Structures
1.
Amino acid sequence: MVTQQFEQRTRELIDSLKAICAAYGLGNDGNEFKIITQVFLYKFLNDKFAFEAKRIKPALAKAESWEAAIAALSANDLDMLQMQMGPDTARLKPEHFISHLFGRQNAPEFAKLFDDTLRDIAITNNEIFAVKTDGGTKITLFDRVSEFITDTSKRDAFCRAVVNKLGDFSFERIFSEKYDFYAALFEYLIKDYNKDSGGKYAEYYTPHAVAKIMAAILVPEAVRGKVNNVSCYDPSAGSGTLLMNIAHAIGEQRCTIYSQDISQKSSSLLRLNLILNNLVHSIPNIIQGNTVLNPYHRDGKALIKFDYIVSNPPFKMDFSDFRNELDTKEHQERFFAGVPNIPKQAKDKMAIYQLFLQHIIYSLKPGGKAAVVVPTGFITAQSGIDKGIRQHLVDNKMLAGEVSMPSNIFATTGTNVSILFIDAANKVDVVLIDASNLGTKVKDGKSQKTLLSTKEEDDIIATFNRKEAVEDFSVVVSYADIAAKNYSLSAGQYFDVKIEYSDLTPAEFKAKMKGFAGRLEGLFKESAGLETEIKKQLSGLQYE
C-alpha cells in the first residue's frame, strides 16, 4: 500500500511538471521531454544526496534543516562527507539544493540562477554522468532549461513554478527499500516522448513482455545470483528497456552495461534509466553514434566481444548514404552474409536489421548469449541475406532457439516479430516456439495491441528453458533437422501432421462410403441446377 501511494505521488509530480510546461506554451513541444526528464532527474539526485548524507551522518537527519546543517560544515568536512558517498550519488554543494533555490525565488534573474545551478551540477559531475558521442564529445547532464521558453519575460516565473513543485515530497524513503517500481515509473515518465516519431534506430518502445521473456531465457532462474562480472551490450539501445531487464536478472552490481544508439534523445533517456536503476557505473559506456558504420566499443582496433547482447533493432531504414562504405573489405568479416542492396524505390525499406543482426553475432564472446527481435519473415526466407545468417548460426552450432510472437505485440508497428535466441555454447537441440496464437487483443489509441498474460509469458519461458515439446506450441529439433528444412526456424514446419484412425466393421465402412457418395451426388445435382439457371439468365440478357 505504501508503495502504491508513493507511486501515485511520483506520478502526480510528473503530471504537475507537464501541466507547468503546458501553461507556458510547451505542451507537446519537441523540447518538453528535455525539461520534464531533466527537472525530474534534478529532484531525484537532490533527494539521493540527502539520503546518503543522513546515512553517513545520522545527526543530519535530526537537524531542523539538513540543508542548513550541511551548509554549516567546513569545506574539509563537506569533502569528507562526499568522499564517503557511493559512486552513484551526485556530488552536490549547498547552493545546489532545491531548498536553496526555493529561498532565492525573489532574486533578480531567477531563471539564470536556476540554469546556472543545473549546469554547475552537470560540470561538477561530468566524469560520472556525461554520455559520450562516438567522436568523443561529452553530452552533459543538464541543459539551460529556461531557454526552452521562447518568451524571455516568462522564464523567471516558469522556473519559480518548477521549484515550488519540487518541494512537495521527497524520494528519500525509497532508497532504504528495494521497491521494484522503477520500470513502471520510468515508462510513465517518458510515455509521451518515446514513441515512433520518425526517428532512427531504437526509438520504438519494447513491450515489457518481450523484455521479460528475453531476460528470463538468457538468464534462467537456476543461474541467477551465480552470474558475475559480465558485460551486457545493446547496439540499438533506445531508452534501455532490454538492458534494464537483463541487468536486473543478473544483478546490477554483477554486470556492466554497454550501449550505442544514434539518437541523442534515446541516449539521454537511457542515462536517466541507469541512474534510476542503480547502474550509474555504466554511464561512461553509453555512446551516442552510428553503430553500423562506426561501432564504438573497442579493445585497441578490435571490437569488444560481450557476454550478453540484447537488441530490438530497427527493421527498415534508409541507410543508402553510407551503404557502400559498409560493402568493403574492412567490414567483410563483420557483415559475413552481405550488405542489403539499395532498392530502386522506397529506400526507407532497406533491411537494416540484417546489419544489426550480423554485428551482434560478430560481437558475441565464445560461449556468449544474445536475444534479438527480428521480423518474423526472417525465420523462413528461402534465400538471400536472411537465409545466409540462419545458415551461419546453424552450421556453426550457435543457436538456442526462436519464439514467434503474436501479431501486434508492438502497438507501433503491424510487422509480426519473433525473438531469436543465440547461444554460442549450445551444440545440441534447438527450441522453436509458436506463440502467435497467444494473447488478448486490446485497443491502444488508434492502434490494436496484443497483451500476453503473466501465465502466457511464464509458459513461454518455462517451455523454452526446459526444452519441452508441446503439441501445436513447441518443438525441439536438431541442427541437422533445421538444415534439412532449408534452415527454417518456423516451429509450425516441424509439427507432426495429425492423421485420425478409426476401427470400422465392413458394414460401417460401407455405410460411411454410401454417405459420402450421397453427399457428392447432391453436390453435383446442385451444381448442374446452378449451371442451368445461369445459362437461362445469360440467354435472357442477349434478347434485352
2.
Amino acid sequence: MRQNKTQKEQIQRMKALVDTLDRAAKAYYAEDREIMSNHEYDALYDELTALEEETGIVLSNSPTVNVGYEAVDELPKERHESPMLSLDKTKERESLKSWMQGNPAVLSWKLDGLTIVLTYREGKLAKAVTRGNGEIGEVITNNARTFQNLPMRISFPGELVLRGEAVISYSDFEKINEEIPEEADRYKNPRNLCSGSVRQLNNEITAKRNVRFYAFGLVRAQGEEFHNSRMEQFAFLERQGFEVVEHYLVRPEDILERIAFFQEKIAHYDIPSDGLVLTFEDIAYGRSLGRTAKFPRDSIAFKWADEIRETTLLQIEWSASRTGLINPVAIFEPVELEGTTVSRASVHNVSIVRGLQLGIGDKITVFKANMIIPQIAENLTKSGNLQLPEKCPVCGQPAQIRQVNEAKVLYCANEKCPAKQIKSFTLFVSRDALNIDGLSEATLEKLIDCGFIHEFADLFELERYREDIVQMEGFGVRSFQNLMDSIEKARTTTLPRLLYGLGIAGIGAANAKLICRYFDYDLERMRAADKETLSEIEGIGEVLADAFAEYMADGDNRRRLETLLQKLTLVIPQADTSGQPMVGMNFVITGSLEHYENRNELKDIIEQRGGKVTGSVSKNTTCLINNDIHSNSSKNKKAKELGIPILSEEDFISGYLQ
C-alpha cells in the first residue's frame, strides 16, 4: 500500500510541476515576461524528467513532450472488438437500492461528453476510437494526444484497453462561446462542443478546446491482477496517471446518502454530468449476469429526476444584440428550483417560441437542465397567442424573421440601431480589444445619446467635450481625467486587438491572432485578401472568411477604419527573415512521408525557413508535396486544375532544401 501511495504522490507532484513549467513557458515565450529564473526552470524541469523516468508516466501537457499537429482528410472508422452497449436507466433512487440485491457497488459520475476507447501498448498510446454507434467508431488517435490530461506514456508495459469520457468544462465552454458574437452560431452545450472538438480533422483545433479525459472503466490490462475488484481497477488506472471519474464504494444501507452527496455537488461541478453510474464491485459477479439485447446487467445509470415546477408565463422579453439578433427570454412567476429562485429562462429563437406555442398567461413547467440551466419543459395551455414584435425594441425600426442554420431568428436590419452601436462600442473598449477602462455600457449609452461618439475614432476625441462630460451623472474632473489617461494608453495597441475590437462577425480574439500571424501582421494584405485566401488559414472556415472579406470590402467600413488608424499606433512584431528563403511561399503536404517521421516534422522545417503550410490547395499554393504524384486524390486534382506543381518528397528536398 505504501508503494501505491508514493506513486500517487509522485503523480500529483508531476502535475504540479507541469502546471508551473507550462505557466513559466507561456509567460516567457508568449507574454515576454519571466516568472522564474532559467536556473529555477531547469531545476524543476530536471525534477519532472526524473519523476517521469522513475514512474514511467508522461503527462500529455508535459514540456518534455511535444505533440505534433496534423490535419487529415477524413477520420477512419473501426469496429469495436466488443459492442459498447448503452446502460439501462432509472430516475428512482430506491430502485438503485433494490437493484444492488445486497451487493456492494461503485457509484460514480455519469459525465456528459463523448465516450472514447483508448489502447496502450508498450506504455504508449496506440489508438483512440470514439464510441460511434456502439459497433463502429471513428479513430481519433492524433486528436486524443492533445487532450489536456491524458498521459502519453504509462508505466504498464502490456496491452491496456480502457474507456472514458472526453469532456469540456462549463468554464471553458463559456470562454469559447464568448468569442462567438452571433448568438445563433454559439454552441448550445458543452457536449456538442466537445463532440465537434474531438472529431476535428485538424488536431491543432482540438488542442485549443481544452478537452479533458476521465477514465470510467477498464476493459483489459494484460496479465494484471485486480482481485475481482472494480475499486482496484480504478486505483490501477490512477497509478498509471489517468484522471478517473469521482467514485465511491457503496452498499445498500448508504447509497442514498452518497446520491445526496453527488446531488449537492452537481450545482457547482464544472464538469458536465447528466447523472450517475452504479456498477457491481464484484467483477466476476457482474459478468455472470450477462446482458440483454440492449444493456449489460452489471451496471445501471441513474438520471437526475428533474425538479419541475409549474408557473405562469408573464412576458417574453426581447433584447437586441450588437449583431442585430433580437433574442427572446421568458419571464415567469418566480419558483424554487434546485435550491434557488428562478424567474427567467432563455427561449433561444423564434422556432422554439413557435414550437412551444407560447402565449402570455400560459401555464408552463420549468426545470434546470442538468440541474443548472433554467429551461421551459412544457407549455400546458398552448394558447399560441404571443405576437412576435414587428419592430426592434431598441430603435423601433422593422424587425425581420431570418433563417439561420436550422432555426428562425428575429433580426433588426437597421445598421444605425443604438443597440448595435452600444454593443459594438462595448466590445471595442473591452479587455481583449482596446482595453479602455471607465467606459461601461451605461456610460457609452450616455455618450452616444449626447451625440459625442458616432464611430470608434470619436472615442479618441472626447477631450473636446470635457466641460459637458464632467457635469454628467457619475462623472467628475477626476474620473474624466482617469478616462482620458486610459484612452491615451489605448492609442498604442496591437493589430489582433484592433481586429477583434472591430466586431467582425465570428472573429474572436483567437481568430484575430490567427489571421494576423498568417499575413505577417500586414494590414493591407488582410484588407485585400479574398475569401479563398482567408479560408486557407487553419481555424478560419468559409463562413468566417466570407464575413471578414465582406467587412473589409464595405466602403463605409474602410472609411471608418482609415479614420481610426489615424488615431492609433500599432505595435507590429518584427519577424527576422534572415536565413528564411521560403518567406512568402505556401505549401500543402499530403500522403505518407519517407524521409520524415510525420507531416509535422516537415512542416516545422518549412516554417523555420519562413514558409507556411496550409491544409488546402489554392491559387496561392507554391507546390503540393505528395509522394503519389499520379493519384486521383482531391488535392492532386485541385493542384492540376490550378497548375500548381505536385512534387514528390525527393523533388521537394532537392528543389527547396538543398
3.
Amino acid sequence: MAETRVVRAVCSHDCPDSCAVLVTVDTASQRAIKVQGDPTHPVTQGFLCGKVAKYLDRVYSPERLLYPMRRRAGVPKGPVGYGGVKGREAEAFERIGWDEALDLIAARLGAIRDQYGPESILPYSYAGTIGKLGFGSMDRRFFHRLGASQLDRTICSEAGGQALTQVYGVRLGVEPQQFAHAGLILAWGANIHGNNIHLWPFVQAARRQGARLVVLDPYRTRTAAAADEHIAVRPGTDGLLALSMMHVILQQGLEDRAYLDRCTHGFAELRAHALLPEHAPEAAARVTGVAADTIERLAVEYATCWRRTGRAAVIRLNYGVQRSENGGTAVRAVAMLPLLTGAWQQLGGGLQLSTSGAFPFANEALQMPGLMHSSPLARPARVVNMSALGHALTELGSRAGDGPPVKALFVYNSNPAAVAPNQNAVLRGLQRDDLFTVVHEQFLTDTADYADVVLPAPTFLETKDVQGAYGHYFVQLSQPAIAPLGEAWSNVRLFAALAKRMGFEESCFAEDEDTLIDQALASGHAWFGGVTRQQLERDGRMEMQLPRAADGSIRPFADASWFRTPSGRGELVPVPVFRAPQESRANATEFPLEFLPRKADNYMNSTFTNTAVHRQMEADTEEVLEISAEDAAARGIQHGDPVEVWNSRGRIVLRAAVTSTVGAGVVAATLDRNRTVGPATGNVNALTSERLTDLGAGATFYSTLVEVRRVVPEPLRAANR
C-alpha cells in the first residue's frame, strides 16, 4: 500500500471563502493525488467548490507552462490559433533558461528606464492569488525600487470597498455562521450558491428554521432559482431601490430611533432625502422595474423581521452592485439599511460585503513603498488605473502632464487581454511593436499571446503563503504540498532574482517567505492577538480576536465602539443620490439593451477556462447570449440562432438562448475562454467601457448598452445584395 502524507493548504483564488484544503501526497512520487476540504474548519466545513474539487486537473494539466520562453524572431504578437500550449509554443515561442530570461528582462527594463524614465514601466496584477506574499510583497518592493508607475488596483472591488468604509470606517460584516440565525436573508447582487458556496449551508440552516431567502438581481442566478423570491431589479438601479425601501421604512415609522441616535450621524438629512417624492415606491418602480407593492412589502418585511419573528434580517451584498457608474453610491445606500433598522444589534443581523478589514496585516512592511525614494525618481511614481488599461497602452503620454508613454508591461496574477474593459483598445496596445511585455503565468493565456517573454508560475499547491479572507474571520497559513512543477517560480523568488539582476542592493530583496510572513503578521494589532507564523504552522489557522458579545458572537456595529469614521458613528451623510448610468435604458438611443457580462459559476473570471473538465461544467453557457422571448421576437431571433452583439466599442458573435433568466431589455453572457481573442472574436469585454465608477474609480462592467441582431449566413447575404 502506497504511503501518503497530508498537507494543509489554503485556496488562494479570489473568493470570499478562502477554503482550508487538505492535500494528499504520494510520498514515493511526491505527486498530489487528492484535494479535499478540511472538515475541521468552522466555515468551509470540509467541502470544496466545483472548481477546486477538480484542482488536480489544473495542476497537472498538459497545458501548464513549465519553462521560461521568449517570442521567436519575426512572430507577430497576437493569437496564434486554437489548440493547447504544446501546439502553440512551438509556433510563437522558444524555450530558454531562467538565467537567460532574467538577463533579457533586466536588460530591456534597464534600457527602457534609462531612455524613457522608470514610469514608462507598468506592472499589472490583481488577485490571481490573494495570499499576502503572492498578491503583494516582493513584487511591490521591486517596482517601487525601480520607480515604475504604480498600479491603482480598482478593477474588482474598490468602489464597494470605499463605499463600505465611508459608511462604517472599516470593512467588517456578519460572520457567515450567524446567517443560520437569520429570519430574512437578502442576497443583493450575490450569487451565493455559485460564487460563495460555503455560506450556503448557513443560509439553508436558517431556511429550515423558517427564514426567507430573497434574491435581488437583474439575472436569475443559480441562487435566485433556489430562493423563496427573486426580485429582478434593473441593472444600475439598486441605489434607488434601497432609497425607496428607506422611504417606506421612514414613512411608516419602522426605523430604530434609539440605535440611530446612539450610533449614526446625519439621520435628519437622510430622512429628509429618503422621503422625497422621487423615492416613493410608485416613482421608483418606473425606474427599477420592481413593482411598487413589492418594494413596500419588502421594506416592511425587512424592517419588522426581528419584532415579527425574533430572528434578524441580514443582507449578503456582493460586488456586482458596485460595477455600475453610480455603484459606489448604490453600495452606500444598501449599507445604510441595517443602520436604519438597528439590525446590527441582533444575532445574525446586519450586512456582509467584506470582512477584509479584520486582518490588519503589516502591508507597508511587506510592500515598502518608501523604496520609491531610492529609485531614480526619488519620489512616489505616478499612478495608472488598471480599469483604464486600454487608455494607458494607447493614449497615455499623449498629453502634457501624463508622463511618459508605457513602454514595458509586466503582467502577473492577471489576464488583462481577457478581463480588462474596452478589450479592443487593450489589444491594440498589446500589439504594439514598441511595447515590451512580460507575462508570469500558469497557462498560455490571452495576454501571454502578446508577450515577448513568458515565465512559468506555480499554483497554490506549490507555494507557502499566509492569508486572511473577505468572507470570514480566520487567518490561515498555506503550506506547499508539492514542489513547483517544471521550472515554475513564485512571485517572491522571481522578483527577488530580478532585483539582484537590476543591481538593487537593499537587504530586503534577500528575505525569504518565512521572513515575509513574519513581517506580515507583525502589525501589533490587538485583533491578531499576537499570532505568529510558528502558531499557524502548528494549528493551520486562527480566528481573529475581535470583540465578542456575551454569547461569543462577533457583532460589528452593535454599538458605537466599532465605527472608525471621522464622527465615530455610522455615516448617513452625504446622502446617497441616485443617478442613472450614462449607459442605461434611461438614456438608451442607438443601443437599447442593457448588457450583463456576468460571472460564470464554474470559472473565476478567465481562471479555470484552461482545463477541459471545467469547460465541460460550463458547456451550456459558453459563447451564449441569454435574451428574453420578448426581445428575441422583436428581432426575429430564435433559440440557437447565431447573433451579433455590438456597440460603438466592438462586436462579438454568440449563440442565442431565449430564456427567462433575464427580463425584457436585458441580455447576458459570461466571460468565456476565447483563446483567439481579437476584434471579431473577442469576449464580452469587447463591449464594456473604460468609464469609471463614482467612488474608487473602478470598472463599470454592468453599465453597458448593446444592440443584438441575428447573423445572416454569408451566402444568403450575398444573394440579397
4.
Amino acid sequence: MSKNKTNFLVQGSILAMAGILVRVIGIIYRVPVQNILGSEGTAYYGAAYDVYSLFLLISSMSMPLAVSKIVSIKLAKNQIKNAYRAFIGALIVGLVIGVTVSAVIFYGAEFFAKMWGYPSAVYAIKVLAPVLLIMSVLGVLRGFFQGMGTMMPTAISQILEQVANAIVSIVGALFLFKLGKDAGQSAALGAAGSTLGTLVGATVAFIFLVFVYMMYVPVLKRQLKKNRLAPEESYMDLSKELMLTIVPVLLSTTVYNFSSILDSGVFGNICSKVFHMEESVYSAMYGIYSGSYKLLTTAPIAIASALSAAIVPSIIRSITAKDNYTAIRKIESSMRLTMVIAIPAGMGLSVLGGPILELLFNINPADMDYASKIMMLSVVTVIVFAMSTISNAVLQGINRMRTPIFNALIGMIIHYIALVLMLVVFKPNLYAVVIGDIIFGLAVCILNAISIYRYIGYKQEVVKTFLLPLAASAIMGAITLGVYKISYMVTGINAVSCILAIMVAIVAYGLSLLLIKGISEEELRMLPKGEKIVYLLKRFSLL
C-alpha cells in the first residue's frame, strides 16, 4: 500500500508541478498581454475565452478524465486490447465532436459575442474556433496516457503548449493591436491576436503527444500480442461505455465551470441592459477581475486540478480491487497535499495582493485600491475551489458520476441568485462577482463532503488538513507583510520589497508548518525527492 500510495503522490506531484509551472508562465505572459490590450481589450479577450471555455467543456474537457477512467478499468482487469480499442473509439468520437463544435462557434461567433454582452469579442472568438477540434483529439491522447498510469506526457505537453502560447500571444497581441489603431479597433483586434497563442500552443502540444504515441506503438504492439487470449469487446460496446462515462463527467464539469464562465455574461448584460452602461466602461471594470484576480487565484487551484487527474485512475484501481481502505488513504493524502500547498498560496495573495498587482500589471491608479481590496478575498477563493475540485474527482473516482452534477447544479443556482441580487441591489461591482464565486465553491465543498462520507465512509479530517496549514499560513502572512513594509520603507522600491517578501514567505511557511507539526516525516517521504528533503531537514535539526 505504501508503494502504491507513494507512486500515486509522485504522479500527482509531477502533474501538479507542471500545473504550477504552466500557471507561472501564464501569469508572466499575461502581464505584457494585459498591458498591451488594456482593461477593455482584456475584457474582450476574457469574454471570448469564456465562450471558448464553455464549448471546450462540451467538446473535450471531460475527455481526458473519461478516457483515463475507462483505460484504467480495462488495465485493472488486464484487458490491454480493450483499453487500446477504447482509445481508438474515443479518438473517433473526439474528432466528430471537435469538428461539429468548431463549426458552431466559428459561424456563430457574432451571435455569441452579442449574447455575452461584448460584441467586439467576435474576432477573438473566431480565432479560438479551430482550437476546439485540436483539443478534442488532444484530450483523448492525454487521457490515454493518464489511464496507463503516467502523467509525464500530459505534464510535458502542457508546458510546451503554454510556452508556445506565451510567445505567440504577446507577439500577436502587439501586432494586431497596432494594426487596429487606424480602424479604431485596437482592443478588439489585439484580443484576437492574443488568442492566436492558444491556437499555436494547442497545435504544438498535439504534435508532441502524437510523437510520444508513435514512439510507444512498438511497446503497445508487444503488449497486445501477450494479451491475445483476453476477451475482446466490440467497438459498439466500448463506444457505449465511453459515452456513458463521458456524459456524467461532461455534465459535472460543465455545471461546475458554468458559474465562472457565465459570470462575464451576467455582469455584462446587467451593466448594459439594467444600468445602461457603455461597453467600454463595464468592460474595463470586468477586465480587472478576469485579467488580474482570476488569473492569480487560478494558479494555486491548478494543484487541485493536477491531483484530480492523478487521483481518478488511482482510486479506480483500488475500488476495482475492492480495497476501500487504500482508496480512503489516497483520498486523505490528496486532500492534505492540496491544502498544504493551496492555503499558503491563497494567504500570500491576500496579504501581498496590492504589491503583486503593482508589480505585474499596469492597472489604472484610480482602480488600484479597488483591485487590492478584492485580492484580500483570495485565500477563501483558493481554499473553496481547490477543495471542491479535488472532491469532485474523488466522487468520480468512486464511480458516483451523477453526484457532482447535482451538487454543482445546486451550488450554481445558489451562486446566480446571490450574484444577481448583489449586482442589482448594490449596483455593478466586482465584490459581487468574487463573493458569488466563493458561495458557489463553498456550497459544492459541503455537498461533496456529505456525499463522499455517505458513499465510501470517508470523514474529512479538519485539524491537520485545514487548521494547521491555516495557522502556519497566518504566521507566514504576518511575517511576510512585516518584511514587505520594512523593506519598502528602506528601499522605496515595490519590486524589490515584493520579491524579498515572497522569498521570506516560502521559508516562513515551511518552518512554521514543521514547528507546529503540520506535516509528518512519513508524509514528507511520500513526496518526490522526499528522502532528500527529510535528510536535509534532519541535518539542520528541523525534523
